[in-house]
Amino acid sequence: MLKSRILAVLAATVSIPAQANIIAGPASVIDGDTLDMTGTRIRLFGIDAPESAQSCTREGQPWACGEEATANLREIVASQQLDCRALGTDAYGRTLAMCRTPVFDVGQEMVRRGMAVASRDAPAEYEAATQIAQRMRFGLWRGEFQRPDEWRAANPQATAPLAQAEFRIASPRVAPSRPAPERRYTNAFGCAIKGNHSRHGDFIYHLPGQRYYDETRPEALFCTEREAQAAGFRRAKE
């Protein structure tokens, strides 16, 4: 049975192996943090790369950092087989995933090269990769740059039309009013919401005080329910 599954993966251009949250196959590069796997749009979890139209500064001169980020991701991915673990979806309907080549964690390598910044919810290894990039002055850290999220906020005209065309958004997103503060669950070790796979393969998170909290072995930790849900987890029923 296992052998037949492996053969099926190799035979398909993009396939979904035994676990439904794994997407495997070759990928094409859209920009510095986005891939396409035969129609499945993948947004790399844990990183934010300069937008394609974004410009930075290096040695006092303008530098097309967005284009170089795209070129670096294309070099990392090449024509290799990727294994991507889906964690949820983003605001544009793209699949949020962590992807690996036979050699690299793709997002971590983009951060190590200094061609992307790690997000707050990135794995701990991405922070170590950031420190290497900063110390060696790789990529963005060799000059001056605006964080991609700040650049998007300052240049909505450069990103909104592209996003609407790419993802066929039917109506513009309306900025919500400021939400009430969300409860944070922390303990002496940090974030206290435990996320893991159920016996049926579902992504479940457990809050302190819930029935199975103490016996749950966490695969991921979150400080708020919103963080857990954004990563594709749902709350345990008890």
Structural features, described:
There is one protein chain. With 238 residues, the chain is of the alpha+beta class. The chain has two domains: 10-166, OB fold (Dihydrolipoamide Acetyltransferase, E2P) (Beta Barrel), CATH 2.40.50; 186-235, no CATH class. Helix content is 29%, strand content 25%. It has seven helices and 16 strands. It has helices at 2-11, 65-77, 106-112, 124-136, 148-154, 156-167, 225-230; strands at residues 22-25, 28-31, 34-37, 40-44, 47-48, 56-58, 61-63, 82-89, 95-100, 117-118, 186-187, 190-191, 193-197, 203-206, 220-222, 234-235. Strands 1-8-9-4-3-2 form a six-stranded mixed beta sheet. A four-stranded mixed beta sheet has the order 15-13-14-16. It has a two-stranded antiparallel sheet with strand order 5-10. Strand 6 (56-58) and strand 7 (61-63) form a beta hairpin. Helix 3 packs parallel to helix 4 (124-136). The longest helix has 13 residues, at 65-77. The radius of gyration is 19 Å and the shape is globular. The model is unreliable at 1-20 and 161-179 (pLDDT under 50).
Overview features:
238 residues; alpha+beta; OB fold (Dihydrolipoamide Acetyltransferase, E2P); 2 domains; 6-stranded mixed beta sheet; 4-stranded mixed beta sheet; 7 helices
Task: Show unreliable segments.
Answer: 1-20, 161-179
Q: What is the fold-level CATH name, i.e. the topology of the largest domain?
A: OB fold (Dihydrolipoamide Acetyltransferase, E2P)
Q: Approximately how much helix is present in the residues?
A: 25-40%
Largest sheet: 6 strands, mixed
Q: Which strand order spans the largest sheet, edge to edge or round the barrel? A: 1-8-9-4-3-2
Beta-sheet strand percentage?
A: 15-25%
Radius of gyration: 19 Å
